[in-house]
Amino acid sequence: MARFETTSELLAGILEGQVPRQVRLFAAQGLLPIPREDLFRLQVMLSTDPDDELAEVSKSSVAEVEAESIVDWLKNYDLEPMVLDLVIRLREEETIWVEVARHAEVSDETIRILAKNGPAMVQDIVITNQVRIFGCLEILDDLRNNTRVTESVLRRVQEFEHEFIEKAIAAEEAIAAGEAPTIEDALESLRLIGAHIPELERLPYLGSDEDAGVRDAVGKLGGKQSTFARLVNMSIKDKVMCALKGSRDERAILINSRNRLVVRGVLGSPKLSDSEVEVFAGLRTVDSEVLRVIYRNPRWMRRYQVVWQLVSNPKTPVDLGMRLINRLNVRDLKRISTSRNINPVIRRTAVSFAERRR
Q1: 358: in domain
Q2: Is the pTM of this model over 0.70?
């Protein structure tokens, strides 16, 4: 057996399999005479050991530790991102998840798991860390998709999205005028003053980040697909920035995104034309949020073609269609009244309006 001069050397030897199996089993059982904080770390790491017995013994040992002891350990010791990620997979108590969410070394991937699955207090910690969210916008969707998300957190998610788009548009306009740094420059400035913007190794994440709307839109391009395939694998932040300053073709793809921030980036782009909005209003591939954003813009709603596209689009929510139908002319009311793709409520209303105007 190799000789180990320090506790850290012994820990490394155990994790790397350089000690007899019985010693590793003692570690999994919590029987090694080493400091408690080192023993916790060792047991957490051994829970992923390829040796099934060692892994199960380690999991059982970690499960038996009092939550208060783990919270104290999380508060007072420097821990690797992987250890923090494993802790929330082994223990689901709110007090433990709260401390992991607050830990300076927690990775973006682990924060995303907490955002998607955490209770109210954990959600509050995540949404409050705006520097973290700024560096990983995917967290906003994770919070929104949490089955236990609170109304307060949802409201703050929406506020962040709105403010982010406004600031991003202002930044792009300032950049065009040569007055401001890029967002990446701003992030670098934050790093220089010590802000924690994690760029750590990827850890397992519970879920998929695939944006089906963008993927499907790119898939329909035929020969042009390779030109825009990069959009599929972009991060949310990169998609938002592309939506704001990209080409007309890129906006036509990104408007199909299932991420609200990307969609708002497209509709907030300084380059967006009224003719594009008319097309978007009639798309059956977009999320209903796109149609609601268009409806809320007074300038766009002054265009008759936008109104027509919204009313005749089967994806338009019924409440919006009902508010707009009285703005159609008789010819278009008749077209709506005979269309089998339109909601029956809107169709009947169109018949009624058409008869009255005759």
Answers
A1: yes
A2: no
